[in-house]
Amino acid sequence: MSIEPTPAPLRLHSLQSLRAVAALLVVIFHSVQIWRELVGTSEFTGVWDRGWAGVDLFFVISGFVMVWVAGGRAAGVGTAARFLWDRVTRVYPLWWVFCALMALYFLVTYGQPASPATHTSATAWGMFARSMLLWPQGEMPVLAVGWTLIYEMAFYGVFGLLLLVSAKWRPIGLIAWGVILLLLWNVTPADSGLPSSWSLTLANSLCLEFLIGAAVAYGLKAARIPAPAALAVAAIGVLAFIAAMVFASGFDADALNRSRVLGFGLSSGLIVFGIVGWEISGHGQIAGWLRKVGDASYTLYLSHFLVLLVLKRVFEQVGLFTDVSVMSVVGFTVVGVGGSVISALILYRLVERPLLRLTRVALAKRAAPRQS
Predict the structure, then answer these.
(1) Residue 128: what pLDDT?
(2) 7 located within any domain
(3) CB atoms within 10 A of CB 85
């Protein structure tokens, strides 16, 4: 391995492909979950039910991206403010769209904007408001996948603070956070649940997955890895990830997040290191369709649950995929994933990209007075 500074292209096609894989894993997980609700069975769990590990890959990717894109920026209040504005305007507008649609589904179906399984009409509106804000509340938001965005916002907040100091001190700040998380490894409450405050979110062991991604980015910025070695690392990561999916039933239910870090966080770090290292070595070629799904991965992540609920209603009416069999669960999953991807690609063009353009215009207008 040669210790040469590696050029840091801001857009990595390999990263988009990994985003696609992470999103597709989550879609598969929810497809199987909703199919079980459709047929009323508790079968087809185990490895069928491990797609939630895509979230761990997402967290590692997120930590990588923050360092890769913004880790070397000049220190200052303006830099931190610009970074946080970019993140807020990237995450919230699309989240508001799909969280509101999920609330509308509950409102039309049950007469309140949150699931009646967890809330009464008296508490549902408060739940909806906190969900729109992505505020920690110790339970799933109205649109369940939003729990991961709460962690994302917590990480962005910490990284924004680190942009106030010189770039050379930022790795030390991240290491300090990692040391604190390791010291809290066996004492953090509710490690298997959802934190009810920002402090508990920042103290949760899942945050180590962001730091794994950050460490990978610093490593690849500092050293260029030969393509064969990169592929070997990626292969080890993939095998470890698959092994964790197979043996995840042995995870300690009272320490699920710590088990996720060990089983999926570390293996995701190896995958990101290997795949990105392969691309920046000049040898990486990523399938175009996978990049396109990666581009639309945020829309796919937020929209797929609604698509699957619609498909569930349709199949209930027509009596399709309603028997307990391998063909039934595979059929529903294939249709669910396909429908979710097609919907996401359309919504990416019709909703996400226009929203991004609007936020860029707002950002440009906000910056103009300072430049005049």
Answers:
(1) 96
(2) no
(3) 16
pTM score, two decimals? Answer: 0.92
Q: Can you name the residues that pair with 2 across neighbouring β-strands?
A: 224
Q: Are 143 and 71 in contact (CB under 8 A)?
A: no
Cα R_g (the chain), whole angstroms: 21
- Give the 3-state secondary structure of residue 136: coil
Model pLDDT for residues 335-349, shown as the tens digit of each residue: 999 999 999 999 999
In a domain, 291, yes or no: yes
Number of domains in the chain: 1
> Domain for residue 250, yes or no?
yes
In angstroms, the CA 100 to CA 291 distance is 28
Residues 6 or more apart in contact with residue 78 via CB below 8 angstroms: none
Tell whether the torsion through CA atoms of 147, 150, 152 and 154 is positive or negative.
Answer: negative
Domain that holds residue 50: 13-371
Closest CA to 268 of 236, 231, 223, 297: 236
Q: For residues 198 and 210, give the distance between their C-alpha atoms in angstroms, rounded to a whole number.
A: 16
Name, in order, each residue with C-beta under 8 angstroms of 65's C-beta and a sequence gap of 6 or more.
15, 213, 217
Residue-wise pLDDT tens digits, 95-126:
999 999 999 999 999 999 999 888 888 899 99
3-class secondary structure, 224: strand
Q: CA-based angle 145:147:149, to the nearest 5?
A: 90
